[in-house]
Design a protein that fits this description.
alpha+beta; eight-stranded mixed beta sheet; 14 helices; 33 strands; 26% strand; iron-sulfur; metal-binding; RibonucZ/Hydroxyglut_hydro; Cnh
């Protein structure tokens, strides 16, 4: 059982309590400057942190709220109804954690329940390290090799191939011996199922040589089968002992507990914290003064807003939004690092590029933060923290880095080493995706009904039109173009007459059919920039996207059963396409063969 304690985060005397107005009250603690929201109605009080659960933004008064119950996040404009502690934009998403209240002599104390820090269960005093005893080698993106005494541990090996279908490609060229290093690992940690961390092309190569290598993943609601030696790690229990000096612990993310994890590795009392892609790891409680901290930094890991059109989504609006988002992320990461005060900080897990020629628009639009700029910001606000901007093959010697005064602790790759990739074998991977286009199941229109029944999302007022397109998102003649009404999971030929939200999703045919055929999550389409979207009204439907991005059945559709049942499905009402300007599927395949390089 996880131990808990509580602490008072804000104290109001009787006069301050009496002065609270009906509705929303914003308060700041004079002790640490943290902000809180108190809602008053009929003499009853509710309180919460002034912090959005999505990405930690600050709430302000929502000028569109006429009832005085809603606040708006300054980051992504999410809205919270403080009277119910439910988020209303996006609807059906999160519930805000309510603070406890203690009354005393007419005054009020707001109390936060603190989950006990599990890494303190069995604390160890740091022992002296010898030169070369603990080294950290950057390979590429989020992949680090840790030499920890006699054990070698590797984080998130994405060493070859694309991620998110064909949308992400490695920016940095991994060292030539990276795959050999991976095969020599004593243990591997994979933080989550996104394919820039759980890379099947990489693991396929690994399994040919080391099918029994121990791989550790967090016990999320959607664990992935990896290898004969893989293990699911429960969260926040204790540090798992690997040998006399090495142990580690996997923690989950508060915002995406079904998906993201982070890890604490400890060797001889020295801690390495890797928060990976977590938005709010371990409910915001993390160890301070660790020896090395690593985290993401770049941004741009979403199709929004680059893949959206219509309404406000002009090029100038997109550019301003992206610029502001990157700045907010940069400041948030700098503040987080400053608050945790690690001895050394390394930004990683953001070194990808939209390299395929057909994604040139995304590459030019989806600007990202630079590691050098984040490290400069950290040095300005916290000069005592050593920062490291990694290059492929660069090695950090922890013993040297901790010496005072420290000796040169980082060994860069030899002069002339190719840092950036300049070729990606596009044909090999794109052709594999496009093979799904001619799969037998897509010769029968009733695959649509079979697929969405398998997906299991319904009883939600949303109508979606899905259109198969070529590389340039032009609809394909004889490609599928259909409506799905998720209120009753029907497939009408026209939009219903009732009032309903509507989304139009254009998907590249090869990727869409690959996703459908294999029962994959729609991250390949959305995060991989393989679709284009418009919506009426402009509202993010969290329940819909969360289902198709994280909650699809773990076992894929039974297409063999479908093909056996085709006659019965064919007798059902079939969705019909609409006439559009288009190219043929055969023309698309010919075009793909001659343009992909």
């Amino acid at each position: 059982m996880t131990a808990q304690s509580s602490k008072t985060v804000l104290t109001l005397d009787s006069e301050a309590v009496f002065s609270l107005k009906d509705g929303i009250n914003f308060k700041k603690s004079p002790d640490d400057g943290k902000c809180y929201i108190i809602y008053k109605e009929n003499g009853e009080l509710k309180a919460c942190k002034n912090q959005c659960k999505h990405q930690g933004g600050l709430f302000i008064k929502d000028i569109e709220d006429l009832d005085g119950r809603t606040v708006r996040c300054t980051k992504h404009y999410w809205k919270l109804n403080v009277s119910t502690m439910q988020y209303v934009n996006p609807p059906d998403s999160f519930t805000q954690d309510e603070l406890g209240k203690l009354s005393y002599e007419g005054g009020l104390q707001l109390v936060e329940v603190i989950v006990w820090d599990p890494w303190l269960a069995d604390p160890q005093d740091p022992q002296e390290l010898q030169e070369g005893e603990v080294t950290v080698t950057y390979l590429t993106h989020a992949c680090m090799e840790l030499q920890l005494g006699g054990k070698k541990m590797i984080f998130d090996p994405w060493l070859t191939g694309p991620a998110f279908a064909r949308g992400w490609w490695l920016l940095h060229e991994p060292p030539a011996d990276s795959m050999e290093r991976l095969c020599m690992a004593d243990l591997i940690y994979i933080s989550h199922m996104h394919s820039d961390h759980l890379s099947y092309p990489t693991l396929k190569s690994l399994s040919a040589t080391r099918p029994d290598v121990p791989i550790y993943v967090g016990d999320t609601s959607r664990p992935e089968p990896l290898s004969k030696g893989s293990s699911l790690m429960p969260f926040s229990c204790c540090l798992r002992q690997i040998d006399e000096h090495l142990r580690f612990m996997i923690l989950k993310d508060e915002v995406h507990p079904e998906l993201d994890t982070c890890i604490i590795v400890e060797y001889k009392g020295h801690m390495i914290l890797n928060t990976v892609d977590c938005t709010r790891p371990n409910y915001g409680r993390l160890p301070h003064n660790v020896d090395l901290m690593m985290s993401d930094f770049a941004g741009g890991a979403s199709g929004f807003p680059m893949t959206f059109s219509g309404g406000k989504y002009t090029e100038s609006w997109k550019a301003d939004f992206i610029k502001n988002e990157r700045k907010k992320l940069m400041n948030y990461k700098a503040q987080l690092v400053k608050s945790l005060q690690p001895k050394i900080y390394c930004p990683f897990a953001g070194y990808f590029v939209e390299a395929h020629p057909s994604d040139r628009y995304i590459k030019e639009t989806n600007t990202k933060n630079k590691a050098e700029e984040l490290n400069a910001l950290i040095k300005k606000s916290a000069p005592g923290i050593t920062t490291w901007t990694p290059k492929p093959g660069a090695v950090l010697d922890l013993a040297l880095a901790l010496m005072s005064p420290s000796r040169k602790a980082i060994t860069d790759p030899p002069s002339g080493t190719n840092i950036y990739k300049d070729s990606w074998d596009f044909d090999l991977y794109v052709d594999e995706l496009n093979r799904a286009i001619t799969a037998e199941i897509f010769k029968h229109k009733s695959w649509i009904q079979f697929y969405y029944i398998w997906a299991g999302f319904k009883n939600y007022n949303l109508v979606v039109r899905v259109i198969e397109t070529d590389e340039d998102f032009i609809p394909i003649a004889n490609g599928y173009n259909y409506l799905v009404d998720f209120m009753d999971l029907s497939f009408p030929t026209q939009r219903p007459t009732r009032e309903h939200p509507y989304e139009e999703i254009k998907n590249r045919i090869g990727v869409m059919r690959h996703v459908v055929k294999n029962g994959l999550l729609w991250d390949d389409l959305y995060i991989g920039f393989q679709n284009r979207l418009s919506r009426e009204p402009d509202v993010y439907h969290h329940r819909f996207w969360n289902h198709f991005q994280t909650e699809l059945p773990v076992t894929g559709p039974d297409w063999d059963l479908f093909l056996q049942q085709v006659p019965s499905y064919q007798r059902s009402a079939e969705p019909q396409g609409i006439q559009t300007e288009s190219v043929s599927a055969s023309t698309f395949l010919e075009k793909a063969d001659c343009t992909v390089s």
